Amino acid sequence: MAAIVFDNFSYSYDGAAKALDGVDLTVARGSFTVVAGPSGAGKTTLCFAACGVVPHYFGGSMAGRVSVAGVATAGSSMRELAVNVGTVLEDFESQLVTMTVAEEVAFALENRGVGHDRIARRIGEVLAQVGLAGLEDREVGSLSGGQKQRLAIASVLATRPEILVLDEPASALDPEGAEELYALLASLNREYGMTLLVVEHDLARVLAYADNLLVLADGRIACQGRPEEVLPVLARSEELAAMVPPLWQLKFGLEERFETRFAPWRHEGEAIEELGGFIGAGRREDTKSA
Amino acid sequence: MRKTAPLTKIVMVFLVSLWAMLLDSAAALALLTAALVALFALSKAPAASYKALGSLGIFAAGLTAMQFALGAEAEFSAVVGLRMAMMTGLFILLMATTRIQDLTAALVRQLRVPYEYAFMVTASLRFVPDLLAEVKAVQEAQACRGYSNRGSVARRLRNYLTIVQPLVLRSVTRSETMAMSLELRGFGANRAGGYGTSIAFGYRDYLALAALAAGTAMIVAMRFYR
């Protein structure tokens, strides 16, 4: 069964301009799906639709259907949907509402009436999962940005959702923090089988982990598929080429110019290694011909 | 004080404030104030609360001096200053020796204050450091665009609007995100709350409540039946 299904889904916040327009999308269970696209393309609205914030919180008008773990979002409350979907919003700091780390993880469990002994056990498990073990009594305000992001993830993991939706989770993190965060998300995906739907504009950060890349433009799906299939399509598009990371732009340019094929790079390390080999080979050929 | 239940401390704040209102002798109030300072010392309150206590002392002295300068008798002026110092000092002691989450749990579970209201208190305090950081960031950003907090009071107030405006907008956005997040985590379904809080009564609470009740009875008797 698919984790999330958008069936010809359209949505408008104000009844006029469509934020999403006729979206057909199936997110496979256990997949790591990355959503990209220019500003105003509908990425955040897509996340909101997956967790029921749209239409339950914002109202607006919609057509079509979204179902999560087989449940139609329009027919269930946000609270009911949260059983299956954990959501980390873009402004994750505002999502943290309690004084200490342990209380933050306990918050959703308390709201569900879970007993204190089980809460205590779950806090230990979840904090170990996200690398915050031992910080139970720390005040939320004293954590670093990366730790707060991990805590926001821990706070939604506490209730064991099978799907995790994250809206630009690395936008406020430094490069090292972003790398650590995506390594954590990858481990949740691979080791615990969680389905991930992540909005990210810097594709170089996620190519190592994503198995499904979805590009939105003007509320519609511009292209979708495995990253190695989607990137060349983006590189050829006038409007969306800027989304392709610089090294990959270079790759496609070189492939076209020299009629060669590079391997499908999954991260910048692979790109630098292969490009280094390519440039070295070119130099040797120049020396020989001279 | 840290081992005393939050409810006991809340009761203490109310009853000792009542004592301060009923007592009209500067000597008795000075004795109470000395006891409060001793409690502070015994409770190992954080350094910031001593600073607050010091400021309170200066303010109380100023209030006393002002009363006296406006023609009130010395005894009455001292009573007014000491009363104010006592009542505010008690509140500072309560906040300095009680975790805010314990206070909230006591309000909800023992005083039956609706969970939503008590939660609002905790959440507001949680965002104080964030708000201060934002004020600093906005001030720096606006300083780059020519913001200055110099000049006349009217000018400074007018200039301060450039700080307040983005802060208000940011707070509105923040509260919207927070509301969504609360909804997504099932807020309000179970109203118990208070994980990891400590509000249970111990023998010292019963002793303190008994002493407070006896003290109140004695002061009321002295005040109305002397």
Quick description:
The complex is a heterodimer of chains A (290) and B (226). With 290 residues, chain A is of the alpha/beta class.
Description:
The complex is a heterodimer of chains A (290) and B (226). Helix content of chain A is 41%, strand content 20%. Chain A is built from ten helices and ten strands. Chain A has a six-stranded mixed beta sheet with strand order 6-7-8-3-9-10, sandwiched between helices. In chain A, strands 2-1-4-5 form a four-stranded antiparallel beta sheet, covered by helices on one side. In chain A, a hairpin with a 7-residue loop joins strand 1 and strand 2. Chain A is globular. The model of chain A has no long low-confidence stretch (mean pLDDT 91). Chain B is an all-alpha fold and 226 residues long. Chain B has two domains: 6-99 and 198-225, no CATH class; 114-184, no CATH class. Chain B has eight helices and no strands. Chain B has helices at residues 6-22, 26-43, 47-69, 74-97, 100-109, 115-144, 153-184, 203-225. The longest helix of chain B has 32 residues, at 153-184. Chain B starts with 5 loop residues before the first helix and ends with a helix. The mean pLDDT of chain B is 87. Classes of the chains: A alpha/beta (290), B mainly alpha (226). Chain A binds chain B through residues 51, 53, 56-57, 78-79, 82, 87, 89, 91, 93-100, 102-103, 106-113, 116, 119, 140-141, 155-156, 159, and chain B through 99-101, 122-123, 125-126, 129-130, 173-175, 177-190, 192-196.
How many β strands of chain A by DSSP?
Answer: 10
Rg over C-alpha atoms of chain B, rounded to the nearest angstrom? 22 Å
Going by CATH, what is the homologous superfamily of the largest domain in chain A?
P-loop containing nucleotide triphosphate hydrolases
Task: Outline the low-pLDDT stretches of chain B.
Answer: none
Ends distance of chain B: 33 Å
**Arithmetic mean of pLDDT of chain B:** 87
Residue fraction in strands of chain B: under 5%
The oligomerization state is: heterodimer
- Most residues in contact, chain pair and counts: A-B, 35 and 31 residues
**Helix and strand pattern of chain A:** EEEHHEEHEHHHEHEEEHHH
